[in-house]
Amino acid sequence: QKEVEQDPGPLSVPEGAIVSLNCTYSNSAFQYFMWYRQYSRKGPELLMYTYSSGNKEDGRFTAQVDKSSKYISLFIRDSQPSDSATYLCAVPPSGGYNKLIFGAGTRLAVHP
Amino acid sequence: ETGVTQSPTHLIKTRGQQVTLRCSSQSGHNTVSWYQQALGQGPQFIFQYYREEENGRGNFPPRFSGLQFPNYSSELNVNALELDDSALYLCASSLGLRGSGANVLTFGAGSRLTVL
Q1: CA distance A103 to A2
Q2: Residue closest to A65 by CA, chosen among B32, B15, B94, B102
Q3: What pLDDT is stored for residue A29 in this prediction?
Q4: What does pLDDT average to over chain B?
Q5: A91: exposed, middle or buried (C-beta count within 10 Å: 0-12, 13-18, 19+)?
Q6: Could you give the CA distance from residue B95 to residue B32 in angstroms, rounded to a whole number?
Q7: Which of A34, A44, A88 faces B102 most closely, judged by CB atoms?
Q8: Which of A69, A104, B61, B83 has the most neighbouring CB atoms within 10 Å?
Q9: Res. B1: pLDDT tops 60
Q10: pLDDT for B102 beyond 70
Q11: Is B59 helix (H, G, I), strand (E, B) or coil?
């Protein structure tokens, strides 16, 4: 079993839709949970991170962690064509914040 | 403030050859990590350099090696290239080994290696 599982999609939605992106993880010791966005021909950029359980909101983006079910989600409200990218969930193992474990990434396309 | 720059952006090698990829870290960052991203996959951690020494390695064989220079720039060397080494190689820089909260990694755009 992979430590972080993510449905690779692709996911295609109309502009304005609410998008839900999800990952599961296997190690209950993980404390930080991150979402990276990667545009085509670019490196990943940190979108949001959360610590432990709960929600974190930043503009149109909401990150949610449910540690009881080892499930992490990213919601995008009022999706825009500029949100078209690959979204990667990532967790740092204990003591290794730079040694991230990434999911496979979900490719999102938002069409006008 | 400059970001992370990598060179070359694309290169093609044949099986058995050797390759060197270069990375200049973001200004003020002293730690460099390298990741391999195969097509359709998430990045996989190769190793990390801090104070010119390797500090942590992922599940990669010894033919993957690296260097960090006093100016914090870094090189990734891969010997005896195999077809499966074809991937996007990402360099990421950060400040320190562990930050408070999530130590933000700044990634470069990557070097795309094709092995024929």
Answers
A1: 9
A2: B102
A3: 85
A4: 91
A5: buried
A6: 9
A7: A34
A8: A104
A9: no
A10: no
A11: coil
* Helices and strands (DSSP H and E) totals, chain A: 0, 11
State the best of A40, A50, A52, A98 to mutate against chain B, taking most chain B CBs within 10 Å.
Answer: A98
Residues of B in contact with A43 (CB under 8 A): 4, 90, 92, 107-110
Residues 6 or more apart whose Cβ sits within 8 Å of residue B71: none
Tell me the per-residue pLDDT of B35-73, one tens digit each, with 9 for 90 and over: 999 999 999 999 999 889 998 899 999 999 999 999 999
pLDDT at B99: 46
CA distances from A103 to A100, B22, B63, B78, B110 (A): 10, 25, 25, 24, 18
Partner-chain residue, chosen from A32, A42, A103, that has the shortest CB–CB distance to B102: A32
Closest residue in A to B106 (Cα) is: A45
Q: CA B71: distance to chain centroid?
A: 16
CB A109: neighbour CB atoms within 10 A? 14
Using a CB-CB cut-off of 8 Å, the residues of chain B touching A95 are: 98
Nearest to A23 by CA among A111, A109, A100, A79: A100
Q: How far apart are the first and last CA of chain B?
A: 38
Q: Do A95 and B40 touch (CB under 8 A)?
A: no
Angle at B24 between CA B37 and CA A50, to 5 degrees: 55
pLDDT of residue A52: 81
Structural tokens at position B103: 């130590």
β-pair partners for A22: A73
